[in-house]
Recover the amino acids of this structure.
């Protein structure tokens, strides 16, 4: 199963959710591949692959554009093996990809085609999207056909979601055989801005009770990412934050819930 973690608004927790969903699925015994579809490389950099991002010989650009040595058959050339899950890292050069894919008739389908040719035996593929609506974000939606929406629980979220729902409708109209399913909404950094209960109610009404998840605004989330892992591989004692221990337990439970829900849809 493939899951796109998508939302065109910046800083709502796409990358954090991607890392922890991939970590949770891996913790539950699955083989997981994460794909960084954001040219800004948040996922790649947060997992510590700065050199890959800046200097690797090949980028997703090369595979999806087929402009050089590589073709859509070669996604496996990009995979790096991680301790929790594998990764297709992003690359500085992928900034050129957005422009390239715009100009290609089937550009938006390139990631889907590349993944169809290289499933690599993974149980789950988690795709982290960029914070804008363009061919890369559309490509991630088309490739996964399942989307998890991270969001802050504020009123702007309603507008952001409406825009994304419209984009999904447009894609489904344009591509006959595509149907994009909702995995759910992750309300991220809950507690930060004194979220109203009306907003949570709106999410539950929109998605259904079993499809809405909450992640509290806790520094333990950031500390785990500082140590380049999900909360599942994060050891607060080793990292010098022993007081994170209880919070980490709770966060693991929350992300495990999302992973179990994802499994139930596959
Ligand atoms: N539950 C949380 N508690 C505390 N901090 C969090 C939480 N979730 C995310 N953050 C922090 O919020 C910031 C934004 O998160 P993240 O990078 O995951 O968002 P994003 O949607 O991927 O952003 P971008 O649009 O820039 O790619 C990061 O610094 C992250 O560590
Ligand atoms: Mg991100």
């Amino acid at each position: 199963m493939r899951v796109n973690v998508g939302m065109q608004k910046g800083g709502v927790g796409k990358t954090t959710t991607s890392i922890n969903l991939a970590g949770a699925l891996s913790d539950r015994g699955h083989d997981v591949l994460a794909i960084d579809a954001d040219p800004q490389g948040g996922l790649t950099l947060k997992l510590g692959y700065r050199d890959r991002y800046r200097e690797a010989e090949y980028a997703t650009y090369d595979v999806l554009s087929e402009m050089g040595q590589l073709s859509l058959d070669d996604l496996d050339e990009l995979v790096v093996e991680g301790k929790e899950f594998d990764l297709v890292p992003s690359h500085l050069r992928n900034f050129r990809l957005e422009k390239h894919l715009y100009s290609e008739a089937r550009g938006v389908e390139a990631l889907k085609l590349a993944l169809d040719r290289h499933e690599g035996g993974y149980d789950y593929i988690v795709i982290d999207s960029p914070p804008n609506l363009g061919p890369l974000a559309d490509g991630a939606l088309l490739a996964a056909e399942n989307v998890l929406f991270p969001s802050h629980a504020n009123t702007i979220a309603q507008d952001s979601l409406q825009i994304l729902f419209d984009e999904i409708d447009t894609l489904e109209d344009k591509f006959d055989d595509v149907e994009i399913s909702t995995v759910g909404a992750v309300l991220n950094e809950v507690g930060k801005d004194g979220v109203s209960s009306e907003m949570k109610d709106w999410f539950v009404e929109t998605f259904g009770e079993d499809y809405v998840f909450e992640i509290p605004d806790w520094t333990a989330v950031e500390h785990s990412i500082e140590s380049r892992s999900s909360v599942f591989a994060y050891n607060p004692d080793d990292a010098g934050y022993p007081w994170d221990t209880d919070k980490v337990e709770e966060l693991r439970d929350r992300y495990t819930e999302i992973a179990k829900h994802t499994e139930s849809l596959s």
Remarks:
- Strands lie at 2-5, 32-36, 86-88, 124-128, 146-151, 181-190, 212-216.
- The chain has one domain: 2-265.
